[in-house]
Amino acid sequence: MAMNGVKVLDGKVALVTGGSRGIGAAVALRLAQDGADVALTHRGSAGPAEEVVARITATGRKGWAVRADSADPEEVRGAVAAVVERFGRLDVLVNNAGVGAVGPVEAVALDRIDQVLAVNVRAPYLYAQAAVEHMAEGGRIVSIGSCLAQRVPFPGSALYATSKAALTGLTKGMARELGPRGITVNLVHPGPTDTDMNPGDGESADFQRGFTALGRYGTAAEVADAVSYLVGESARYVTGAELAVDGGFAA
Fold this sequence. Notes:
The chain is α/β, with parallel strands linked by helices. The chain has a single domain, classed as NAD(P)-binding Rossmann-like Domain (Rossmann fold, 3-Layer(aba) Sandwich). Helices cover 40% and strands 17% of the residues. It has helices at 22-33, 46-58, 73-87, 110-131, 158-178, 205-209, 220-231; strands spanning 2-3, 6-7, 13-16, 37-42, 63-67, 92-95, 140-144, 184-190, 193-194, 218-219, 242-245. The strands form three sheets. Strands 5-4-3-6-7-8-11 form a seven-stranded parallel beta sheet, sandwiched between helices. A two-stranded antiparallel sheet has the order 1-2. Helix 1 (22-33) crosses helix 7 (220-231) and helix 4 (110-131) runs parallel beside helix 5 (158-178). The two termini are 30 Å apart. The mean pLDDT is 96.
């Protein structure tokens, strides 16, 4: 997006966690198109992350991929420090990295519970904790939640829903605390979204699609549109909010 020829995020630096694929990759590319230099974290092979970086640089912006396991607190803090050292600032944090969890309540092992809560809850807190040390007025934090944080219409999702619902408390609490510093904190809840992790032609796609009011999967780009709005100047008076991009899943 550009206003009078100037893109809304010109001169800004963004960090997108889990930005090598799916929603994270779409968000990273959209923020670059909005004018930001974008760093992204990845945990696995560097190949997909470098492909996203190449797409970022093709827009004329700087891109960088840094390996960081969101389950490791030191790697989380190290990733933020590395981004600030490389780019000299940090204006936007998008907490996107997450892990799924499916299974009956009584069957989920303790180590799985710990992993999901570490990645989906602790890591967003730690990323934000580290990022706000470097954010000036106008800083933006957006976390990616889930439609299952607002409605859980099928069994087997209690752990995942718990982890994503926790982001509501994080968002509202940090919004209240960081508001006087001019930093906004918001939450986006995607519904069924066509990614390699949950393809629109997968085995459960028709089942999931049936829970939406629009009767279709969303796209990663549609989620990125919402993030773009929240980190831009048009949302300067929006904080502590939950924005559902779910096709009416929670309706």
